[in-house]
Amino acid sequence: MARQQGEEWTQPNDDGESEAKVTLREAMEKSMNSPYVQLGMNVGTDKVHDAAIAAGLRPSASNGLNDYKNSVTYSIGTSSPSAIRMAGAYSTFAASGMQNDPYSVTSVSDKSGQIYKHEKKAKVAFEANVADTVTNVLQGVVEKGTGEPAKLDDGREAAGKTGTTDDNKSAWFIGYTPSLSTSIGMWRLDDKAEASKKTFLSMYGTAGKAKMHGNSFPAQIWHDYMSQALKGTAKQTFNEPSSDPGEMVYAPGTSPTPTPSQTTPSQTPSTTKAPTTPTTTPPTTPPTSPTDTPTTPCSPLDWNCHHTPGGGSTSPTPSTTTTRPGNGGGGGNNGNDFSD
Prior knowledge:
Helix content: 10-25%
Low-confidence stretches: 1-5, 249-254, 263-317, 327-339
Number of helices: 6
Oligomer: single chain
Largest sheet: 5 strands, antiparallel
């Protein structure tokens, strides 16, 4: 249960089940919402937003990254970055924290020779140990968590995360190996409606499945695509975190011992006044979030996003976007501008 400014926000998990205390690693592997909503509240959703931008996501007028950064549920997804930006953001972790913007044109030549060549401009987004720890945790998602259908048959190391939105309006899997990052998204959009009135449609019953999850078609498509894309290439391994990713800083229920400090009493007598009754009463219901009014598409960073998805077509359409860590990449998007 998350708390903000004296209010409570109860965040259910996708399956409605609850468990006893779990580690963040276990919560990630099982795609549990509640722990990550609470974690976002503890560290501040503004910092979650900063990390998303550092990884390579880019705010725009249409993707909601800036609009909902103070939302209680921002940590599990309230925005709709494009598939290419999601693939690029995950490749930042594959590259041990080095971020490169995705691109599609490597060079341009005419009869006089080369007139343009893309120049890589890598920058440090995260400390290597932070990025490698994220990868280490996301490996568990593929090895024994909700992303297990994406596990590659040849034993290559892979990391990734599933994502499913409210009312089953989109499903995602974004995953990566040390050399290649790929984003798969599925959704439905009412193309018969006017542009200003288009609505996203649920995918219940698609291909005979009662409900579409990130670990169904998206993870399976990712598996099949990556198996072919990496066929014949050398197997690589991820960098190991330089410290224990499960290291406990403070034991449960404890906090650091405060350092005593001396204060000098005020020399001026103070006048005590009766407390003033606030002119307004604090609200007793949680602030409105995209979960209540799903007007903005949802991001799969989303790790288990529960908001309205972004982009699509009249039938569930997979969108595959690939990018190579350290080199950028090319591919489609989820209805936004190519570079969003």
